[in-house]
Amino acid sequence: MTEETIRLKDGGSTVAIHEPPAASEPGEPIDLKRLVPDRYRHIRLNLSPDLPAPGAHFGEHFMLDGYQGSAQWLNDKERVTRALTELPDILGMRKLSAPEVYFAKGNDIKDCGGWSGVVVIEESHISIHTFPGTGFVSIDAYTCRNGMDCQTIAGYFQELFGLLRLETHFVRRGKQFGTYVSG
User: Fold this and answer.
1) What is the CATH class of 4-19+36-47+55-180?
2) Spans of all domains in the chain
3) Of the residues 57, 127, 129, 150, which is catalytic?
4) Is residue 129 annotated as part of the catalytic site, yes or no?
């Protein structure tokens, strides 16, 4: 496996470049029994060490940009819907509604169109925006829980969309929540 982790100027972002695990066939469901945290430990996320200790903030926001994905898989509405259905279960989150997925036709060379979807979870939301024509996907997972398993999320999407490159950002939000919010 080829892997490179690069620390970017903002201190909390990384680019991990490596070969993805063997991809499933289009339409083949991902075996949820195989989705255990150790499965994705090959993905190195260089999260900023100067962040406050877990519990000293309100929420966690994980952003993933995936590159060189399968155009066929990124253009599959059912695959996007499946991700928004499965991932909250994998992470132990509770869905408040069924996922909503829409096709957006695009508006210029940068935005060539694709599928956009969101699922509202009790803890917040997960959203996906695919761009099959460029092999790109942009994903957000935000939760007010602490201890988000970013490696599992990154590995899940890398496998689901056949992504060859990942760029991740992780932000602990509301770092002053306990100081300035009274109950």
Assistant:
1) alpha beta
2) 4-19+36-47+55-180
3) 129
4) yes
Q: Which of 124, 127, 150, 169 is catalytic?
A: 124
Cα distance between residue 111 and residue 159, in whole Å: 23
pLDDT in tens, 115-155: 999 999 998 999 999 999 999 999 999 998 888 889 999 99
| 13-65 pLDDT tens trace | 444 444 444 545 544 555 544 544 555 555 555 554 444 455 577 889 999 99
- Annotated active-site residue 124? The verdict is yes
Residues 6 or more apart in contact with residue 85 via CB below 8 angstroms: 95, 98, 99, 119
